[in-house]
Each structure stands twice: as C-alpha cells, then as structure tokens.
Amino acid sequence: MTSTIEAPRSPYSRAPRSRGVNWEKWGWIYMRVSGVVLVVLIFGHLFVNLMVGEGVSALNFAFVAGKLTTPFWMVWDVLMLWLALIHGGNGMRTLVNDYATQRLTRGILKSAILAAVVILIVLGTLVVFTFDPCPAGSPADLLPSFCSAS
C-alpha cells in the first residue's frame, strides 16, 4: 500500500524561474545574518545604557546627548535602526505573502510596509545625524557638560 502526499496549498502560484536573482533566498539569508548582528547591537546598547556607569539612574537628556555627539554611537544607533526596520519589514512581507490571498491585497499591504519602513528609516537617520545636544533655552542642569549655558 502506497500513499502519496498532496502538494501543499499556496495562496498564489508563480511560474518557476530558471534565471535571475532569487530574492527569497537572499531575504532568508538577510534575516539570519541581521538577526545575529541585531542581537550583538541590542545587547551592547542595553549594556552601555543600563549597566555601565551609574546604570539606569543616569539615563537623561544629557546622557543621550553625550552619546549622540560621538560618531561611534551615531553609527551604532543608525546601524541598529536600519537593520531592525529592514528585518521587521522583511518579516512582515513574508507574513503578507503567506496569508494575503488576493494579488491586489498583497500589493497594497507590501507597498504600505515598504512606505512605513522607508519613512521611519529616513526620519530616524535624520534624527541621529541632525541631533542638537545643546538646544537654545534649555535649563543648564539638564544640558550635557560640554554645552555652554547661555
């Protein structure tokens, strides 16, 4: 007695391509690599913010302003932002591909995910690179030590 396994259901089918870039494979690889890098970046971020120095009680505007004036931490935070948003967007794209059965619905949802990821990456990158650690009119006790009180 032999039994056969039916082909799995798929919400949509595509004709197999023999040439070109396999975007699904590269998306899968990106998820694995970015996940490992994100673990290092996030735990490094948490360690520096919560464990080093005075710990969580030292977290205030001056602490963040001091970190965002250092090119190392600017790159660290932007890398964490970019990797996390692209990682999350790719995961959401995978969910949409798995569960949205209508082609138009898939297109709309994936376009919305792409728009959200691009907007958040642009805004987050602008915040990090245009951050002013010494805003005019701020109380001197809240400013970092390198700001001149005026």
Automatic annotation (TrEMBL):
Keyword Transmembrane: yes
Domain of life: Bacteria
Annotated Gene Ontology cellular component terms: membrane
Keyword vocabulary terms for this entry: Heme, Iron, Membrane, Metal-binding, Transmembrane, Transmembrane helix
A Pfam short name: Sdh_cyt
GO terms of molecular function: metal ion binding
Keyword Glycosyltransferase found: no
Primary location: membrane
TM regions (residue ranges): 29-52, 72-90, 111-131
Location of this chain's protein in the cell: Membrane
Name of the protein in question: Succinate dehydrogenase
Species of provenance: Cryobacterium cheniae
